[in-house]
């Protein structure tokens, strides 16, 4: 398979950089997969898992939204945060999920509900990536 260069940056680190076969991310319109030769695009990326394929190796990680720029054989993703499954504190993510669910039930304001829903999405995405990462390691 033909490769392209993928870079994933957060404000605190260069999370990933390598030549890869494909990357799949979640967008507001659904998942999008990128292969070498994809048309140029700049697209918002939603909170969720990211799947990176390189030869027979498949890596999954969590990204906290952001945007992706595809230009020629270079793909750059900029996100507020990105974590490998082993970097995710599942106990902390479970606690964050419970807090967000409680805040959503409280229905204090529409703004608080929207913030709680976003926190819930982040916690659930972390748990999903951590769970699938643990299964892959078994």
Automatic annotation (TrEMBL):
One of its GO terms (cellular component) is plasma membrane. SUPFAM superfamilies: Epsilon subunit of F1F0-ATP synthase C-terminal domain, Epsilon subunit of F1F0-ATP synthase N-terminal domain. It is found in: Cell membrane. Residues 4-82 form the ATP synthase F1 complex delta/epsilon subunit N-terminal domain. InterPro entries: ATP_F1_dsu/esu_C_sf, ATP_synth_F1_dsu/esu, ATP_synth_F1_dsu/esu_N, ATP_synth_F1_esu_C, ATPsynth_dsu/esu_N. Gene3D superfamilies: ATP synthase delta/epsilon subunit, C-terminal domain, F0F1 ATP synthase delta/epsilon subunit, N-terminal. Residues 86-131 form the ATP synthase epsilon subunit C-terminal domain. It is a peripheral membrane protein. One of its GO terms (molecular function) is proton-transporting ATP synthase activity, rotational mechanism. The keyword Transport applies. The keyword Magnesium does not apply. Keywords: ATP synthesis, Cell membrane, CF(1), Hydrogen ion transport, Ion transport, Membrane, Transport. Its main location: membrane. F-type ATPases have 2 components, CF(1) - the catalytic core - and CF(0) - the membrane proton channel. CF(1) has five subunits: alpha(3), beta(3), gamma(1), delta(1), epsilon(1). CF(0) has three main subunits: a, b and c. PANTHER family: ATP SYNTHASE DELTA/EPSILON CHAIN, ATP SYNTHASE EPSILON CHAIN, CHLOROPLASTIC. Belongs to the ATPase epsilon chain family. Produces ATP from ADP in the presence of a proton gradient across the membrane. This is ATP synthase epsilon chain.
């Amino acid at each position: 398979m033909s490769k392209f260069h993928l870079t994933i940056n957060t404000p605190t680190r260069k999370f990933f950089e390598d030549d890869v076969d494909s990357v799949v991310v979640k967008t507001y319109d659904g998942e999008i997969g990128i292969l070498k030769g994809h048309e140029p695009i700049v697209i918002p990326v939603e909170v969720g898992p990211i799947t990176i394929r390189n030869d027979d190796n498949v890596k999954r990680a969590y990204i906290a939204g952001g945007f992706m720029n595809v230009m020629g054989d270079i793909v750059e993703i900029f996100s507020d945060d990105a974590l490998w499954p082993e970097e995710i504190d599942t106990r902390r993510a479970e606690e964050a999920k419970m807090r967000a669910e409680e805040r959503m039930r409280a229905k204090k304001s529409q703004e608080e509900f929207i913030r709680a829903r976003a926190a819930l999405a982040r916690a659930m995405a972390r748990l999903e990536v951590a769970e699938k990462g643990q299964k892959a390691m078994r």
